[in-house]
Amino acid sequence: MGTNNREDPTLRDVLRAIAAMTPKRIEVSSGVCASTIRAWRNGKTRSPQNKTMEFALRAAGFHRVIVKIGE
Would you list the domain boundaries of the chain? Predict the structure, then answer.
């Protein structure tokens, strides 16, 4: 993925993680509006808030970890 691509790489990963869940189920589990999830999926949102993505991930049973690579 080049720097000219406007897709947020974190959003791409979140969408993969929550793919099996319906927007309504995510809303009920996380408080993130179903319309927000639909906007992510249809490409209307390019840079969502980190906390919103985190809530959706947790609703799907994921915990994000930051790992240093290299050096």
Answer: 9-59
